[in-house]
């Protein structure tokens, strides 16, 4: 491999020690992602005429469910790595959260919470959805601190330096790799912008913005997952996460084609925000 002209360094440590308290950057980044997502959802819900505290009430249920679902997905799809050390299943601060599982569990519990509060479900969904990839974009930086989930060797200017102890055995002599965490973070930020634009232009019916999110995330995950070299479970020689992304992409595109896209003026009027409708009436 040619000499590397420039590269991105990896952090020398992944924890902060404050007296007896030890904080891991992986957990800090996830927490920051959650805070950012809740903030954005509250702002968007308020613009629709809703009470921003409603989002907080939903998050109290949806966030823990999402974390549990993400961990369960990782454990189920990578169960071989836990053989002989099942006591490590709960150690989420060491890494190992499967976004598909977190997304599914968090959304389902969030829908339940919104219904329990008697809220307009399509409106809540459309307000919350752009915050999901925002949380993922921030949370992915936890992988940078852990020096994990990177791609194959590369000498590109933005190649990521990985310490010897974190390199796969077959790449022990390589020093720099594709920063797939960065690729996914940037992809998710672009997805946030796309979702806000689609919602503003009212391209899809109320409540269907989540299908755009799933399709967008699955598309990005397909090519990013194909670059990764970390150990993973396979089905028919293909990584499980690629199968999951293909299924999610097919279902989301199917939904959009079936009933997600707007087709007439009535659909446009149905999506008029609560606050805008009240203003017109006044």
What does this 3D model show about the protein?
This protein has 282 residues and is mainly α. It has one domain (15-81, 90-274). Helices cover 59% and strands 6% of the residues. It has 11 helices and 6 strands. The chain has helices spanning 25-47, 53-77, 99-116, 121-128, 131-139, 141-146, 180-201, 209-227, 240-260, 265-270, 274-281, and strands spanning 15-18, 21-24, 160-161, 176-177, 234-235, 238-239. The strands form 3 sheets. It has a two-stranded antiparallel ribbon. Helix 1 (25-47) packs antiparallel against helix 5, helix 5 (131-139) runs antiparallel to helix 7 (180-201) and helix 7 packs antiparallel against helix 8.
Which radius of gyration do the C-alpha atoms yield? 20 Å
Shape: globular
Counted by DSSP, the helix tally is 11
* Model regions low in confidence, pLDDT < 50 over at least 5 residues: 275-282
User: Tell me about the biggest sheet?
Assistant: 2 strands, antiparallel
Short description:
Helices cover 59% and strands 6% of the residues.
Task: Give a topology summary.
Blueprint: E1 15-18, E2 21-24, H1 25-47, H2 53-77, H3 99-116, H4 121-128, H5 131-139, H6 141-146, E3 160-161, E4 176-177, H7 180-201, H8 209-227, E5 234-235, E6 238-239, H9 240-260, H10 265-270, H11 274-281
Antiparallel strand pairs: 1-2, 3-4, 5-6
Helix pairs in contact: 1-2, 1-4, 1-5, 2-3, 5-7, 7-8, 8-9
